UniProtKB/TrEMBL annotation:
<dbReference type="InterPro" id="IPR008278">
    <property type="entry name" value="4-PPantetheinyl_Trfase_dom"/>
</dbReference>
<feature type="domain" description="4'-phosphopantetheinyl transferase">
    <location>
        <begin position="105"/>
        <end position="191"/>
    </location>
</feature>
<dbReference type="InterPro" id="IPR037143">
    <property type="entry name" value="4-PPantetheinyl_Trfase_dom_sf"/>
</dbReference>
<protein>
    <submittedName>
        <fullName>4'-phosphopantetheinyl transferase superfamily protein</fullName>
    </submittedName>
</protein>
<keyword id="KW-0808">Transferase</keyword>
<dbReference type="GO" id="GO:0016740">
    <property type="term" value="F:transferase activity"/>
</dbReference>
<dbReference type="Pfam" id="PF01648">
    <property type="entry name" value="ACPS"/>
</dbReference>
Length: 212
């Protein structure tokens, strides 16, 4: 069972990461999907996507949840029926969830890729990155910032929020493994704590909304 990592963020919030190495048949063991999820599953063309989807159900099981405990809203955002907060991500062979009893949470895993250099100007003021030592460091930093903004988007979820104009991620050093972020949209602001970790050329970022 390739549970890759678990992180106790605080008393009420946990992260779990899965590295998908099993066959689809193996991943079906112990998993039962709701009609909604079975329909979605049937429409998935890539076996990596199907396996990622099933692996998430194994991560849920770690916290004693089954697929039927999950409900998707019209935007595709997952909710736990018991009122706890959840966020889900998959990227290639890594998948992860964050669950919290008390705080709104978002999570994102991204593969570190050169491609991010080409789209960076769309989501962050790129000139701020020029002081970094080398291209590899710039890619790492951009991937963290992108992951932070995706995580915030998963919490906030308002159409019209611009990654470039409405979400600000405070500068950070890699070793800190954390930063903060703010969304300012429609005259209102909200604040978030961000944590990140890197493994096997992937970056995992998660965000927790500050209580006001
Ligand atoms: C919805 C979105 C956040 C998903 O992120 P992604 O990196 O494509 O994919 P991930 O694997 O990390 O996340 C997928 C999971 O996010 C969750 N999700 C989907 N829509 C969501 C939403 N509106 N809110 C919160 N979570 C959502 C789901 O759990 C989904 O997995 P599942 O359906 O298998 O359970 C992303 O597609 C998106 O729309 N981002 C905003 C785009 C944007 O504004 N970009 C600006 C670029 S400058």
């Amino acid at each position: 069972m390739p549970l890759y990592k678990t992180i106790t963020v605080n008393k009420e919030t946990s992260v779990a990461i899965w590295k998908v190495e099993e066959t689809e048949e193996h991943l079906w063991k112990g998993v039962e999907l709701t009609d909604h999820c079975q329909n979605r599953f049937n429409g998935m063309k890539s076996d990596l996507h199907r396996k990622a989807f099933l692996s998430i159900r194994h991560l849920l099981a770690l916290y004693n949840y089954v697929d039927a405990d999950l409900e998707y809203d019209d935007n595709g955002k997952p909710h736990l029926k018991d009122g706890n907060f959840i966020s889900i991500t998959h990227s290639h062979n890594f998948t992860a969830i964050i669950i919290s009893e008390s705080e709104e949470v978002g999570i994102d895993i991204e593969m570190q890729r050169d491609k991010i250099l080409r789209i960076a100007h769309k989501f962050t003021p790129f000139e701020e990155y020029r002081t970094l030592a080398n291209t590899a460091a710039i890619i790492r930093k951009l991937t963290i910032v992108w992951g932070a903004k995706e995580s915030l988007y998963k919490i906030y979820g308002h159409r019209g929020v611009s990654f470039l104009h409405h979400i600000n991620v405070q500068d950070f050093i890699f070793n800190a493994g954390r930063t903060t972020a703010q969304i300012i949209f429609n005259g209102q602001s909200s604040d978030y704590g961000i944590k990140f970790l890197e493994f096997e050329d992937f970056t995992c970022v998660y965000a927790i909304k500050n209580k006001n």
